[in-house]
Amino acid sequence: MRKAGEGKLKLTQEKMEIWMIDAFAKMATVDSPVRNILLIRHAEKLTWPSGTVPAAEASLYYEDDHQLSAKGFERSHALVGYFLHRKEILDIYARTPLAQIVYQGVDLSGSGKSERPKQTVVPLMNAMASGGVAGVTGHGYTDSVRIAEFKKNQFDTLVTHLRTSPTLNEKCAIVSWSHQTLPELAHALGVPAKEVPKKWGKRFDVTWLVRIGGGTPATLTQMPQNLLFGDENEPIKMKGGFQVKDPVDQEDDD
Predict the structure, then answer these.
(1) Mean pLDDT, the chain, as a whole number?
(2) Does residue 90 lie within any of the structural domains?
(3) CB within 8 Å of 11: residues ≥ 6 apart
């Protein structure tokens, strides 16, 4: 039985979270050093055998193992060449060298149980440490690259880090995260809500470039990856800007 006041308390907490996301966006300063943030959804997960959305009753029997599918692991390895050799990415590094890889860590006690965000960038992290010394890459346009993990319930800390960490001044970061909160993250970094797609849908094949600071307002550029068979060569359709929700209380990544 719900205790008296519980519903009102939860509503108040949700309103506070929404207010904080909007506040982050409004506080984003254009006068800070430029930094480029590359946002990616984790790679593919296991799908239903038919490839279609299951009936509501069938979904009750689906157990998420929180792992990448075979295609997801294929994409995770393809992302190595993408982030280290693709021209449009190297052009970004030429202006803002890659300084950090950030991923959503596993939180077994909370809503962020998925291992997929980390699994998506493990091959890239391994490739960049292939010289035997972590952080030494040998690839052009990269500094010593640091690794950072944030749990899903550390959203506010993640936003503050991406916006203010001296490590990222005039640098670039790659962020691998669950797709439900990526629109909130882009908005919290300063991109106007009306310029952020409402949701990712079934897409795993797009990179979002968020540019902040440098004397100009934050911008979001969608970059189709074109890595695997079936990848689309179009950005995610807008269909209206997204609505701010509590990024911590949302269900675990589907």
Answers:
(1) 80
(2) yes
(3) none
